[in-house]
Amino acid sequence: MRIVLFADTHLGFDYPLRPRVDRRRLGPDFFDNYHRVLGYAARTRPDLVVHGGDFFFRAGVPRKIVDMTYEPLFDLVRTGIPVVLVPGNHERSRLPQSLWLANPNIHVFDRPRTFLIESSGHRMAVSGFPFARAVGDRFRALVAETDWAWYPAEIKLLCMRQAVDGSRVGPSDYTFRTGRDVVSKSDVPKAFTAVLARHIHRRQVLTNVGRSQPPVIYPGSTERTSFAERHEPKGFFEIELRQDDAGEWGVGRQEFHELPARPMVDLEIDSSVPFGDLRGYLANRAADLNEHTVVRLNCRGRLAPGVAAQLTAPFLRSVFPYSMNVQVSIDIYSQAPAAQEHAY
Known about the structure:
This protein is α/β, with parallel strands linked by helices. It folds into 2 domains: 2-259, Metallo-dependent phosphatases (Purple Acid Phosphatase, chain A, domain 2), CATH 3.60.21.10; 264-333, no CATH class. It has 7 helices and 19 strands.
C-alpha cells in the first residue's frame, strides 16, 4: 500500500489576480510544485493521497484561486485515486466550498470523523480532524470523536495538523515539548499504523524506541515560505505500508521526493557603502547569485545617510534582474521612515 503525503502548499500567496506592477512573483512557484505532486500521483497511482492542510495561504481566497486549486485535484480523483484533505490553520480549519469537491473520492475532515477507504484488496480507516487550537487538553477527546475504533480495517491512520512533542522547526532547531498547542506522542493510540501530521514546515519522522508508538510523519511544506526555511529541502513523502510475518501492518519505505525550491540569500549592506555607490554595489553582488534567488537585504550597523531611503521598490526593480525577488529587512526599513514600498 502506498500513500503520497504532502502539505502546506499555501496556494494564492503572492498571486495577485490584477497585479499593479509587472514583476516576478513567488505565487506561481507554489502552484508549480502543487502540480508536480499531483502529476507524480497521477503517474504512479498510489492507494491514497493526503494533503495535510494549509492548502491556501489564508482564509477567504478569491474564487479564481479556489478553482485553480481544486480543478486539478478533481482531475486526479476522477481516475479513481482517493484523496483526503485536512483543513489547516491558514484556512481557519475550514476549506472553501466548491462543486469541484463534489466527488466521492475526495474526503474532507470538516469535523472529527473517519473515512473507510478500500484499495488493493485492503481496507484503510483514515481518521482525523481539522486544525484545533489548544489541542493539548482536547486531543484525546477529538480522536475519540472520530469513532476510529469502531471501523473494521486492517490499516488505521490518523491525520492531523498539529505540533507533536519532539518535532523541530527553524534555524535554531527549536523543539516542541509541552504546551496547550502541543500533542503528546504518548496520547496517540498505539493501534494506529501511522500518524500523518502537518503544521511543521520541516520534513521529519518522529519514532519511539521499541516502536511502542506509531511513527509521526511530517512532509514539510512544498516551497520555502520564509527565510527561516532557506536551508531546508522541500518536497513530499511517498510512504509504503507493509505487513510483517505476523500479518501486522506497519510503515516500511519512506521516500522523500525533493521539489524545486527557490534559493534564498541574505545580502548585507554596511555603513561603508555611500549613497552614490549603492546601485553598483547591489548590481555586482546580484551578478554572483543564481538568477532565481530570493534576496533579503540586511544592514550592519547604521547605514550612510540616504542609503536606506533609496531602497524603494522602483529602485530595487531597476537594479536586480526580473527573475529575482527582493525584500528589505526590518532593520533597514526602520532607518528610512519616509521610504515607500520596501519590498518587491
